[in-house]
Write a structure and sequence with these properties.
Distance between the termini: 64 Å
Largest sheet: 9 strands, mixed
Length: 565
């Protein structure tokens, strides 16, 4: 048996190296052409990228060609093709087309900094319904401006969910004219590209971006997402709500757009696209450059760069663990070395696979897969069993037949933090009060405290957690329970809890609150694993890779401020 395994490994190495040698000869003799297609509105960006791309491979030639939005999907099916694609394009958005976001065009509503209603607007936000009534002639007390032949008009129509022809607003020839109008009409609102407001650290001293009531619930939901200093006027008036909701930091705002805290209709996304995931090195290296060093040319083409952490996230998808930052330059010698390395790695993998397979047979039934480690963290992927009560502390309670109450951690909390390496439990006989510290969850020296959902006397602790705290992650509602408690005020305290359906609805809000927290607190932790996926989705193990500072912030700004309302 051992001889057969070794013989198989040798054959694999031989064929891999033979293929590598043939590939090396072919590279020298063949001249490849990569055709990059673009639609008319992306001409400047496409030409700039091809011109600035440091193509170090003499055997690859990059050509660019303009096509209509109707043609580009067909062109992408051709071999060695790549396309610049805008979300505005009318081209069929086939599911077979692979896309990588490389830039954005963000349209924002602005007003005069001396708008007499500014504080109220910042606190309440503007809603699509209110603006819709204005632009379809129901009200004439508010002027709306956009720039003619600009994405701002298209974005406004999408935001209001009406046809452009139905809008009664004023189209201006340029953004300079827009600013002049807003200087004179201090109550008016204009829609323009955020790039026109990025000349200073703050947006400008003359204009303010208005927050949008995305959920149309009568107030902005950004809270700590952005920040600006409290003015003396606000201090004297006692109105501090605007302090929480004002858009005052460009970096925080752009990060908020990335994680989905801004209406998608006001964001035009720019992609590099191909028929399938770009296996060919020439194409994948070009895309890798576009989301790293190529970002410096984005704003010169009138688009917004990606957030730094977002770039790292996309590189991990495109070239996992191959590029951290900087230019992706073709390197054929390195490619050949990688092939030799992979052939050796293949041999080692085969051996390890055999060993692991044997061990798995012996331990069959003992390995527990973490049910909670889902790819995307949302309320649909969380386990929320019926029959138990949930509390704002992200704990659950279940009354046994004998009147005792089992207490544990919910699936959401273990998903956010990742696997626990230690726990600090209370002792049997200890008295606890609702909202007092219940357990300390530890992960490699980082820790958080979870609070008690009920008051009472601890009858029993789950001693299995002392030797294997990861049981909380594996089975948060069964083997991972924390305590059995003799409740002292059960009827009153349980009335403040939620059951499965209502708790699921509440968790949706908690996930949005978590996004807000991450937008602020993890901005300086760029070396850690990025928590967001494409489109602003959160991943499981959300804060696992971040350092103690983020965990401390998570305790103070998320756990300690949780509310079931």
């Amino acid at each position: 048996m051992k001889n057969k395994i070794l013989f198989t490994i040798c054959l694999l190495i031989f064929f891999t190296n033979s293929y590598s040698s043939r590939d090396t000869k072919n590279v020298v003799s063949e001249k490849k052409t990569v055709t990059i297609y673009y639609t008319p509105e992306l001409q400047i960006l496409a030409k700039t990228f091809v011109q600035e791309y440091p193509n170090a491979d003499e055997n690859t030639n990059f050509e660019i060609q303009q096509v209509s939005s109707k043609q580009i999907s067909e062109k992408l099916q051709l071999e060695n093709s790549l396309g610049f694609l805008s979300a505005m394009d009318k081209a069929p958005q086939s599911k077979d087309i692979w896309r990588m976001l490389i830039a954005r065009q963000i349209i924002v509503p602005i007003t005069n900094a001396e708008n007499p209603n500014l504080l109220k607007l910042e606190e309440k936000g503007i809603s699509p319904n209110e603006l819709q009534e204005t632009v379809i002639k129901k009200f004439k007390n508010l002027s709306i401006y956009t720039v003619e032949d600009n994405y701002a008009e298209h974005g406004l129509a999408q935001f209001l969910n009406i046809e452009s022809s139905a809008m009664d607003h004023i189209k201006l020839s340029s953004e300079d004219e827009l600013f002049q109008k807003l200087q004179k009409d201090k109550s008016a609102i204009g829609f323009c590209s955020i790039l026109s407001l990025t000349g200073q650290d703050e947006f400008t001293s003359n204009f303010k971006i208005l927050p949008i009531d995305k959920n149309e619930n009568g107030h902005t939901d950004y809270h700590e997402l952005v920040y600006r200093p409290i003015s003396e006027t606000e201090k004297n008036s006692g109105n501090l709500s605007a302090h929480e909701n004002a858009y005052g930091s460009l970096d925080a705002f752009k990060r908020g757009v990335w994680i989905g805290k801004y209406p998608h209709s006001l964001v035009n996304e720019i992609y590099l696209s191909s028929a399938n995931f770009p296996e060919k090195t020439e194409i994948s290296e070009f895309i890798a450059w576009a989301i790293t060093e190529g970002q410096q040319y984005i704003e010169g083409s009138d688009f917004n760069q990606l957030v730094y952490s977002e770039r790292q996230s996309k590189l991990n998808v495109l070239l996992p663990k191959e590029i951290i930052s900087g230019t992706a330059k073709p390197n054929r010698a390195a490619s050949r070395l990688i092939i030799y390395f992979l052939s050796g790695l293949l041999a080692i993998t085969l051996i390890i696979g055999i060993v692991v397979n044997r061990r798995q047979r012996k331990t069959k039934g003992l390995i527990n897969v973490f049910h909670g480690q889902t790819k995307v963290l949302n309320e649909e992927n969380l386990e929320i069993p019926n029959g138990v009560y949930f509390d704002k502390t992200h704990t659950w309670s279940f009354m046994e037949k004998d009147g005792s109450v089992k207490v544990g951690i919910d699936d959401f909390m273990q998903q956010v933090t990742g696997e626990y390496t230690n726990v600090k439990l209370k002792n049997p006989g200890d008295q606890i009060l609702k909202n007092e510290p219940l357990i300390t969850l530890v992960q490699d020296g980082k820790q958080i405290e979870i609070y008690a959902p009920i008051s009472g006397k601890i009858k029993e602790i789950n001693e299995d957690l002392i030797t294997d705290p990861s049981e909380i992650n594996k089975s948060p509602y069964t083997k991972g329970w924390l305590y059995s408690i003799e409740p002292s005020n059960w009827l009153r305290e349980v009335s403040f809890m939620k059951m499965a359906d209502s708790y699921k609805t509440w968790l949706k809000k908690e996930i949005e609150r978590l996004k807000d927290f991450l937008a602020v607190s993890v901005n300086s932790e760029n070396s850690a694993q990025v928590a967001f996926q494409e489109g602003g989705e959160l991943t499981g193990n959300t804060i696992k890779e971040y350092g103690p500072r983020v965990w401390e912030d998570f305790q103070k700004k998320f756990i300690d401020t949780s509310d079931l309302n």
